Amino acid sequence: MAQSNQKAQTMQQKKEQAYQQHVEEVTPKYSLVWRMCKAFVVGGAICLLGQFILNYGTNKMGLDKETAASWCSMLLVLISVLLTGFNLYPKLVEWGGGGALVPITGFANSVASAAIEYQKEGQVFGIGCKIFTIAGPVILFGIVTSWGLGLLYWIGTLLS
């Protein structure tokens, strides 16, 4: 009885070792420093484009800062959605990682990609329902967080 338990444990250990070896072989090896550099470059390029749009709006078009900032946001979202539609933004995300996902363009990409993915299910049940799978939680947490911070600010003004 003890020998069969020992054999079973030995077999289990061999299976676990073989599995660990298999995982080591198939897991891609990444350089953290290189990935961080690529994310920095992509995120920086997006921010540089945004700053260019903002400066162009204020200096060349004569817009005030708020209007130029609104145009900047809208144009960055438009560019992101167009790149998503042409299947270029996912390639940018694959190369640049979090650098492409963090800014407003990443949010626009996630909303547009959900709409594109489910468009064959129809306007209402496809696009109408699935477009908010990503945007819904972000909007919800944004509203709840801003409400909570506003409440804390209000209590702070009452106490001081």
Write the layout of secondary structure elements.
Layout lengths: L1 H25 L5 H29 L4 H21 L3 H8 L1 H4 L2 H14 L5 H8 L1 H28 L1
Helix pairs in contact: 2-3, 3-6, 6-7, 6-8
| Cα separation of the termini | 76 Å
Helix content: over 70%
Number of helices: 8
Order of helices and strands: HHHHHHHH
What's the overall average pLDDT, rounded? 87
Low-pLDDT residue intervals, each spanning 5 or more residues? none
Shape: elongated
Share of β-strand residues = under 5%
Overall radius of gyration: 25 Å
Structural class: mainly alpha
Number of strands: 0
Q: Major sheet, described briefly?
A: none
Give a short summary of the structure.
This protein has helices at residues 2-26, 32-60, 65-85, 89-96, 98-101, 104-117, 123-130, 132-159. It is mainly α. The longest helix has 29 residues, at 32-60.
